[in-house]
Amino acid sequence: MAKGKKRNKIDMAQARLDPGSVFASPKDLLENHALSREEKIDLLERWKYDAQEVSNATAEGMMAGDNGDLLRRVSLALGKLKEES
Question: Mapped to the 3 state alphabet, what secondary structure does 6-33 carry?
């Protein structure tokens, strides 16, 4: 079973600290039926902030790697939820 997929109980404290440690992808978070729309938005906004910070650090040469795809996927998931209102 993929990390975060089909879990009945979600460790919300951990999810708020690091959504990527609880959900395998932004899509898995979106598809989780145990979360309300508001909870999903909150977690995706936190994930987006973290991804932006990593992206900024990478751009400034403080970290190696590319976080752009994650930032794009989180932003798309967040946009999808916000469009539904």
Answer: CCCCCCHHHHHHCHHHHCCCHHHHHCCC
- pTM here is 0.79
Q: How many folded domains does the chain comprise?
A: 1
Beta strands in the chain (DSSP E): none
Asked, for residue 6, whether it belongs to a domain, the answer is no
CA 68, 81, 9, 46 dihedral sign is positive
Q: What is the pLDDT of residues 71-85, one digit of tens each?
A: 999 999 999 998 876
Q: Which of 17, 68, 13, 19 has its CA nearest to residue 4?
A: 19
Q: How confident is the model at residue 4, as a pLDDT? A: 43
In a domain, 8, yes or no: no
Q: Two tokens at 44?
A: 């995706």
